[in-house]
Specification:
Elements (H helix, E strand, L loop, with lengths): L1 H10 L7 E14 L4 E14 L4 E7 L4 E2 L2 H11 L7 E8 L11 E13 L2 E14 L2 E10 L20 E11 L3
Length: 181
């Protein structure tokens, strides 16, 4: 992932003060059915934002999702997302209207992010509302959006189909710090 962030930062241009990143963002997903609620967290999300272009990326190691029950985590990695075959999920996109925001000033900013989400080797377009909160030079980004496992060719066995929602709620939170070269 460091290589991906490095390439992003190099490709984004020479103005280093406009780039923000983190290596410990959080992704949470939640599935609820009448049979069962399933929740997992990953606190090792790498992310970068370029204030000049609005480019936003994140990448997550699938095996880093933590579940309440070890068996859920094992099934998630081995049977559903096939973490050995597809070790990462990623998003590459853009904060729309970035040119109209002044993120050098503290405040809360409602934004819309568009881009491509890749999970299980399948890339799909995503548009999501979010917020950017600027406090003392740190940018906290947050967004929640739905993901359908079927859209990413994730097969849910019939025996447990009633335990897993057709649409999973995904929440991404990142605290981005200014990147200094």
């Amino acid at each position: 992932m460091t290589a991906v962030l490095g390439l992003f930062l190099l490709a984004a241009g020479p103005v280093k003060a406009q780039k923000y990143l983190t290596k410990n963002g959080t992704i949470r997903f939640y599935s609820e059915t009448p049979v069962e609620a399933i929740e997992a967290h990953n606190r090792q999300v790498n992310s970068a934002l370029d204030l000049g272009t609005g480019e936003f990326v994140f990448k997550v190691l699938m095996k880093s999702f933590e579940f309440e029950k070890a068996l859920m985590q094992e099934h998630f990695n081995e049977n559903y997302v096939e973490s050995d075959k597809y070790p990462n999920a990623s998003f590459t996109g853009k904060v729309e209207g970035m040119e109209n925001l002044d993120l050098t000033k503290d405040g809360n900013y409602d934004v819309e992010v568009t881009g491509d989400l890749t999970i299980h080797g399948v890339t799909k377009p995503v548009t999501a509302k979010g917020t950017l909160e600027v406090t003392g030079g740190t940018i906290r980004g947050r967004s929640q959006f739905p993901v359908k496992p079927a859209d990413h060719d994730i097969k849910i066995p019939a025996a447990v189909a009633n335990n897993i929602a057709e649409t999973i709620d995904v929440t991404v939170e990142v605290n981005l710090e200014k990147f200094e070269q």
